[in-house]
Amino acid sequence: MKVKEVAKLTGISVRTLHHYDEIGLLSPERQYESGYREYTDENLETLQQILFFRELGFPLKKIKDVLNSPAFDRREALLMQKKMLLEKRSRLDQMIRLVEKSIQHAEGEIKMTNEEKFEGFDFSHNPYEKEARERWGNKAVDRSNAKLAGMSEEEQEAMTKKMNDIYKQLAGLRQELPASEKAQSAIKEWYDFLNNNFGNYSLEAFKGLGQMYVADERFTKNIDQFGEGLAQFMCDAMAVFADKNK
């Protein structure tokens, strides 16, 4: 399909599609001597992925990082997007109910208590823990929480220092190939650290955690404090490590 046909099919402007091409997010695969470029079915599947991620609020740079990752799996991405969209729908339904009640309260039809005015908001949960429980089960998270609770302040500080040291070591290697001996040696240290301190991580869970480093901007922001692009580098190195050690 030519760019105008794709624009008509999807409702996306030609200008937007050209922008995706310019930034390397989505480029038509076929180009002819006439200068015309055509989108393949695979291109359209990639575009669908982009639009799902956009709906979920992912910035274009983050979408590009996710799609270009060697660890990217389309089926797994679709399952994750479905879960996130269902959660978004649930939150929106809850907020709509709160708005409707607030309208009735403003019009004098009902009387809301102060507690009811804020029952649709929830900032108390830990999104990292929720994601971890859903991916790897409650037992792993509970073991991690129990271990942290049983540590003294000095032990927790020592563990944090060790974790930061590994991040710094990996940040210094992020220009290496993820499959290089140095990178794989450092990522093994990270794998061992997680298993020694936060329960038993299977190779599959370890690979999935790496994918979260680039799929979730909260992780990316924290990890990239040690060096721009570290989250992506760790994601790629963790995927290589998991696949090599199966």
TrEMBL record:
The alphabetical list of record keywords is:
Activator, DNA-binding, Transcription, Transcription regulation
Asked whether the keyword Metal-binding is assigned, the reply is no
Please give the PROSITE patterns that the UniProt record associates with this protein: HTH_MERR_2
Q: Does the keyword Cytoplasm apply?
A: no
* Pfam short name (any one): TipAS
HTH merR-type domain ranges (all copies)? 1-69
Top-level division of the source organism's lineage: Bacteria
The protein in question is named MerR family transcriptional regulator
Origin organism is: Siminovitchia fordii
Q: Which gene encodes it?
A: tipA
